[in-house]
Amino acid sequence: MRKIFDLLGVEYTLLEATDGQKLDELPADLKDYRILDGYLDPITKRPMKKGEIGCFLSHYRIWQDVVRNKLEKTIVFEDDLRFSHDGLTRVREVLQDLEATKKSWDLIYLGRKKQSDREELWIPMHRHLSTVEYSYWTLGYMLSLSGAQKLLNPDPLRRWCRSMSTYR
User: Fold this and answer.
1) Are 27 and 9 in contact (CB under 8 A)?
2) What is the C-alpha to C-alpha distance for residues 54 and 21, in angstroms, rounded to an integer?
3) What distance in Å separates the CA atoms of residue 16 and residue 86, rounded to the nearest whole number?
4) CA–CA separation, 124 vs 75, rounded Å?
5) Are the C-beta atoms of 148 and 155 separated by less than 8 Å?
6) What does the angle CA 104 – CA 105 – CA 110 come to, to the nearest 5 degrees?
7) What does the pLDDT average to over 135-142?
8) pLDDT tens-digit series, residues 71-85
9) CA angle, corner 84, sides to 81 and 89, nearest 5?
10) What is the pTM of this model?
């Protein structure tokens, strides 16, 4: 991932992930997380795993960083992401279409595993944007400052915790 960003001349920050197997070692500001009472994954019907809690906490810290640093637009990629042959072109086209249409946005998935057979609605005048249903594997996403504020506003750390890999 570093090589790609360096090659493209993209400014980036690497954030150390939160290890779900070391939740007892969390800093004090993250130890107060709470999982929704009775939460079960909608597809597998199982409780959240420690790795998913770690994943959520990693993304939660990113959202905090976006708000703290007033970052208007951020792209988040998982560290193990592998781009398809046209992946960077698609990201560029998403950005071009957003600029051309002046469409406001808060969060845009750049990669995920669709879980529903239902048809998603394509956004007019956008080559790669659609509405989404419940998904796994958030491989990457674009997040606006207002999107990060909306994700943090309900105080998700203390009210609920959901895997970012299955965010909707």
Assistant:
1) no
2) 8
3) 27
4) 22
5) no
6) 135
7) 82
8) 999 999 887 788 788
9) 105
10) 0.82
3-class SS letters over the chain? CHHHHHHHCCCCCCCCCCCHHHHHHCCCCCCCCCCCCCCCCCCCCCCCCHHHHHHHHHHHHHHHHHHHCCCCEEEEECCCCCCCCCHHHHHHHHHHHHHHHCCCCCEEEEEEEECCCCCCCECCCCCCCECCCCEEEEEEEEEEHHHHHHHHCCCHHHHCCCCHHHCC
- Please give the structure tokens belonging to residue 93: 């086209």
User: Phi, psi (5° rounding) for residue 156?
Assistant: -65, -25
Is residue 32's pLDDT more than 70? yes
Closest by CA position to 11, among listed 19, 2, 24, 20: 2
| Residue 162 lies in domain | 2-166
Report the number of distinct structural domains present in the chain: 1
